[in-house]
Structure formats: C-alpha cells, structure tokens
Amino acid sequence: MEQTTSDSGWRGSHEGWLQAAYDSLLESGVDSVKIMPLAKRLNLSRTSFYWFFKDREELLDALISRWREKNTGNLVKQSEAYAESLAEAMLNVFDCWLNKELFDSQFEFAVRSWALQSPETLAEVQKADQTRMEAISRMFMRFGYEVGPADVRARTTYLVQIGYISMQAQENLALRMKRIPEYIAIYTGQVPHQRELDRFFARHQYKPE
User: Fold this and answer.
1) CA-to-CA distance for 92 and 79, rounded, in angstroms?
2) Are 64 and 111 in contact (CB under 8 A)?
3) What is the DSSP letter of 143?
4) Are residues 177 and 206 in contact, defined by beta-carbon separation less than 8 angstroms?
C-alpha cells in the first residue's frame, strides 16, 4: 500500500482515501464524497488528498473502477467457473449474491443511486448490466441453449437479483437458502442435485435443518 509521510506528518494512503470515499458513498451518497469531509473523517489535512488524487473527479473514477472490478469482474468469473451441470453453474453465480467478497450489494445500490443524478455513471451502470447479462447468457449457451432462450434466461436471472438490490429486499439466510433450489429450477429448467446443493451450502457455512 502506498503511504506518504513528511516533516508535516502523516498524509494517509491512496487506499485509505479510497476506502473513506467508499464508506461515505454507502452511508450518505455521492454528494457526501467530498475532499474536506473525507479529510475530517481521516483526521488528515485537505492538502494530503492531492498526493494521491488529482481532484475529486479522479477519486470518483477510482470508486467506479473498484465497483466495476469487484462486482462485474467477479460475476463474470463466477459465470465462467467449472460446473458439472447448468444448475451447478447457476449456483456458482448465486455465490455472488451471498458473498460480499465477490459482489458488494450495498456498493451496487449506492452506485445505482448515484447513476440517477449522473449521466456518466448511468452509462457505466448500463455497460456493466450488459456485460453481466452477456456473461450469464454465455453460461447458458455453454450448456446447450440457443442464443435467444439463453438471453431471456440470463435477463431473468440477473434482473430479478437487481430488483432485490434496488428494493433493498431483506431475507434471513435460512429463508433464502430454502428458496434457492426453486430459483435454480425456474432459471435453468433443472433441479439441482443434492450433492450440488451440499457443496453450495458448505461454501456459505449453512447447515439445513
């Protein structure tokens, strides 16, 4: 991690400023991501910021890059992960909805809210949506679906989850896990095998009652 000190004291780090911006975005929206409030949050001088970022716009661009790399990058990787069946492939994608290290739903909500007031951010969101749906569609085609049906099933899978995020729907883990086999059956047309569910549950430290 890049860190800078001088005779005038600690200036923080690139990651430190970016993390403060992320925290502020999630707590209060993009309007709160400003240099002086972030400096106060970090107990640093305003001028320290400029050792790491040219201006606020560069910081906002870095936030978008972090969001893109984490949420879109990991979703695409999960859609391409090895699976013995389409049902198991969909369970790999579902890992994103349950593991914040793979897909940060709060970050997703914050960026989508930001997009409501920024045409540039909206364009990034629309590009991400297309990339993600295309990745899921390729997953369906890998298991034998034609282009048209694969596209519709990918859209159904993805847009339902974005609806969950946008509505800030809340489910406890047990209820969500109970529903997942039926979701998989609806989205893929296949009922997942018990061994596939067992592996999925184990990844998320869940033990069915």
Assistant:
1) 7
2) yes
3) T
4) yes
Phi/psi-derived region of residue 205, left when phi > 0, alpha when psi is between -120 and 50, beta in every other case: left
What is the rounded distance in angstroms from the CA atom of residue 121 to the CA atom of residue 115? 5
Position 9 scores a pLDDT of: 47
Q: What is the rounded CA–CA span in Å between residue 55 and residue 109?
A: 24
The answer to whether the CB of 154 falls within 8 A of the CB of 137 is yes
Looking at this protein, which amino acid is placed at residue 203?
A: R
Q: Locate tokens 């990787």: which residue?
A: 77
Quick: pLDDT tens for 81-137.
999 999 999 999 999 999 999 999 999 999 999 999 999 999 999 999 999 999 999
Q: What are the C-alpha distances in Å from 41 to residues 18, 46, 107, 124, 199?
A: 12, 11, 19, 28, 42
Are 125 and 111 contacting, i.e. CB atoms less than 8 angstroms apart?
yes
What is the rounded average pLDDT for all residues in the chain? 94
> What is the pTM (predicted TM-score) of this model?
0.91
* Type of residue at 148: G
Radius of gyration over every alpha carbon of the chain, rounded to an integer in angstroms: 20
Q: Considering only CA atoms, which of 57, 51, 39, 44 is closest in space to residue 14?
A: 51
Angle 172-197-185 from CA coordinates, rounded to 5°: 85
Cβ distance 123 to 61 under 8 Å? Answer: no
